[in-house]
Write a structure and sequence with these properties.
Length: about 280
């Protein structure tokens, strides 16, 4: 997806930002204006041509420069995430590879937000292989199941499982190594009408000393778009279900795709039909 403002800053430059002195560069044209405007733009014509081509193959949402905030480091990312969770009014959706098994503070922050607001809905998506790697010892799955127990009507935890790891591979390839067959690697942290796009997982090293990218978009259209992607992937993922002694992963009958462990080819076909439209230009409307 392309997030590009008209007469505002160019989102494509944001991935290169690492310094707190970042100042968005104004852009005086859109890819839909006349060629004369493109020739007079401050960007090379080749880049303008690429931008125009990208508009034809991927969603584009225009945002103002003041709707974008670039966070500097891991501590600011963590504090910003917690602050936005505390102030959430309607929805929280978190897509990540995993949540660290010792991230009690983060889970406690979500717990308090749910306690204070019975109308708040929380959806968390992680990877099934990475999220259950330490089972039956404490794991991402066991940590998150506590939220399901406390707020069964407000919380949904989904775990994506690759369709590449089935049959004999699933049975004999050991944990950790089996993650080489595919993982859920989306990093979306949405709260109400804002979303943080990052490469950071939700674990202590990414909150303290592991530098990554953190771009906060205060835009309902952007947040809604990524929410649709998040929930689409959730709908083709396993549901974390607490049990009396631990937890398990179940495949709800309402999922719009068959279980990837039993019918991987049909799963891929259904998943493609579901997700492909979200990558087309019309998805941003």
């Amino acid at each position: 997806m392309i997030l590009r403002p008209v007469r505002f800053c160019s989102i494509r430059s944001l991935a290169l930002v690492r310094q707190s002195t970042f100042k968005p560069q104004c852009r005086l044209y859109s890819s839909t204006v006349a060629p004369e405007a493109l020739r007079s733009s401050p960007f090379p014509s080749a880049l303008a041509g690429i931008a125009s081509q990208l508009d034809q193959i991927a969603p584009r949402i225009d945002v103002r420069a003041d709707q974008i905030d670039v966070l500097v480091g891991p501590q600011e990312f963590y504090e910003t995430l917690k602050q936005k969770i505390r102030s959430a009014k309607r929805r929280i959706y978190l897509s990540t590879l995993y949540i660290g098994k010792a991230e009690d503070e983060l889970v406690s922050t979500i717990h308090k937000a749910l306690t204070n607001n019975p109308n708040l809905q929380v959806s968390i998506l992680t990877d099934a292989l990475r999220g259950t790697r330490e089972d039956p010892s404490p794991s991402c799955a066991s940590l998150l199941s506590s939220l399901m127990v406390a707020f069964p009507d407000q919380v949904e935890i989904r775990m994506y499982h690759t369709s590449n790891l089935t049959g004999w591979r699933k049975r004999i390839i050991p944990k950790r190594i089996n993650e080489g067959w595919g993982l859920q690697h989306i990093k979306l942290y949405g709260i109400d009408d804002e979303v943080i796009l990052s490469g950071a997982n939700l674990s202590s090293d990414y909150f303290t000393n592991r530098q990554d990218r953190y771009h906060v978009f205060s835009s309902k259209r952007v947040s809604d778009h990524y929410s649709r992607i998040h929930h689409a992937v959730c709908s083709i993922s396993f549901l974390l279900q607490p049990t009396s002694t631990s937890h398990t992963l179940i495949w709800p009958s309402s999922n719009p795709a068959p279980n990837p462990l039993f019918n991987p080819k049909s799963y891929i076909k259904a998943a493609t039909s579901l997700l492909l439209p979200l990558s087309l230009p019309s998805a941003a409307t």
